[in-house]
Amino acid sequence: MPVVLQDACDENIIRSGPAAAPCSKTRGRWILAATILASSMAFIDGTVVNVALPALQTNLNATATDVQWVVESYALFLSALLLVGGSLGDHYGRRRIFLLGVAIFAVASAACGLVGNIHQLIVARAFQGFGAALLVPGSLAIISNSFSEQERGRAIGLWSGFSAITAGVGPVFGGWLIEHVSWRAVFFINLPIALVVILISLRHVAENTDRESSRVDWLGAILAALGLGALVYGLIESAQVGFNDRLVIMALTAGVVVLILFFFVESRLSHPMLPLTLFRSRTFAGTNLLTFLLYAALGGTLFFLPLNLIQVQRYPPTSAGAALLPFILIMSFLSRWSGGLVARYGPKLPLVIGPVITAVGYLLFLLPGIGGNYWTNFFRRRLFWD
C-alpha cells in the first residue's frame, strides 16, 4: 500500500490509548518533534521514491518490473508487519521498538544510497519497510501515552498537519535532489533526520509497556508476508511472461493458499494480529473494501504518473514532484471539511459521491497526448481525484 498520508484511523488509535503519564509542555514539544520527524521519513519515502524511479531505471539499468519491486518491497513489509510492530511496542517497550525502527530505517536508507545494482536496492527497500512498520505505530503509541486526554486533540492536529506538509513537500524536494545532486541523496537525507529523532527520544521520551495484555502474533505476520509476497510476485512477473507461465501460476496459487491458511490461523488464535470478528460489522468490512479499492487505484497513479511525466512528457524531476502537490495538499486541507459532511449527511453519500468523482478523474487520465499545458492536462485530472 502507498504511504502517502497517515491512515484515516490513526487519530482514533491515538485517542483510544490511555495517557500513562502526561508530560510537561516543554517535553511534549520534543516528543511531538520526534514522532513527527520519524513518521515523516516513512511517509516521504512512500512518495518521493516514485519521482526517483526514472533515474533509478536509467542509472541501474532496471526494467519496469524491477522498479515495481522497488516500490512494492517497501509497501509489502510495511503493510504485513505494521500490526506486529504495534504489538512489539506494547510487549517490549514503545520507545525501545520505536527507536529500533528508526535505526533500522536509517541503516536501510544508507544501504539504499550505496547499492550497486537494482536487486540490492530492492532488498534494502524491504528493510526500510520493516523499520517503518516498527516506527509508525510506535510514534502513535508514544503520543497516546504522553499527552492527557484534554491535550491529545491539539497533539493530533499538529502531528497530522506537519505530516501532511512533509508528505507534500517530499516529492518536490526529492525531485530537486534528483535533478541537482543524485537519486542517492533522496535516501541519504533520512540519516540526519533519524539521528535527530534518536537523540530527542533518548532524552525526552519515557519508556512504557503493556506486557500483560499484549501478544505478538509472529505466525500471523509470517503467513501474511509470505501470502502477500507470493501474490505480488505472481502479478508483477505476469506482466513479462504472462499468466500461463508455470512459475507465475505456482506463485499465485501459493499466495492464495497461504492467505487462506492465514485467515484460518487468525480465527483460531486468542490474540490475533487481525481479529476477524471485526469484519462481522458490514460497515467496517465495506469501508475497508472501499479503502482498499481506492488506494489500489492511487498506488497505480503514484507509480505511473511520475514515469509518464519524466519519460514521456519530459518534465524535470522537480516539476514532476510538484505535479503531485495538488492531490496531497487538497486531500490534507479538505479532510476536516469532509469529516463535517459525514457528520451532517452520514457516511453513505460521501462514500458514493467521492469514488464517482475519482473515477471521472481517472477517465480524464485516459485521454492520450504528449505535451500541452500542465494546468489543463494534469492539474485538472488531479483535482478530480482529490
Describe this structure in words.
- The chain has helices at 10-16, 25-59, 64-92, 94-114, 118-146, 149-180, 185-188, 190-204, 218-241, 246-268, 282-312, 317-322, 325-333, 335-345, 348-365, 374-385.
- It is mainly α.
- Among the domains are: 10-214, MFS general substrate transporter like domains (Growth Hormone, Chain: A, Up-down Bundle); 218-268.
- Helix 2 packs antiparallel against helix 5 (118-146) and helix 3 (64-92) runs parallel beside helix 5 (118-146).
- Mean pLDDT is 80; it is low at 1-19.
The CATH architecture classification of the domain at 10-214 is Up-down Bundle
Helicity range of the residues?
Answer: over 70%
Instruction: Give a short account of the largest sheet.
Output: none
Spans of at least 5 consecutive residues with low confidence: 1-19
Elements, N to C (H/E): HHHHHHHHHHHHHHHH
- Number of helix segments? 16
How large, in whole angstroms, is the Cα Rg?
21 Å
Structural class: mainly alpha
- Intertermini distance: 18 Å
Which fold name is given in CATH as the topology of the domain at 10-214?
Growth Hormone, Chain: A
Query: Mean of the pLDDT scores?
Result: 80
What sort of overall outline do the alpha carbons produce when their principal axes are compared? globular
What share of residues are in beta strands? under 5%
- Please give the number of β-strands: 0
Superfamily at the CATH H level of the domain at 10-214?
A: MFS general substrate transporter like domains
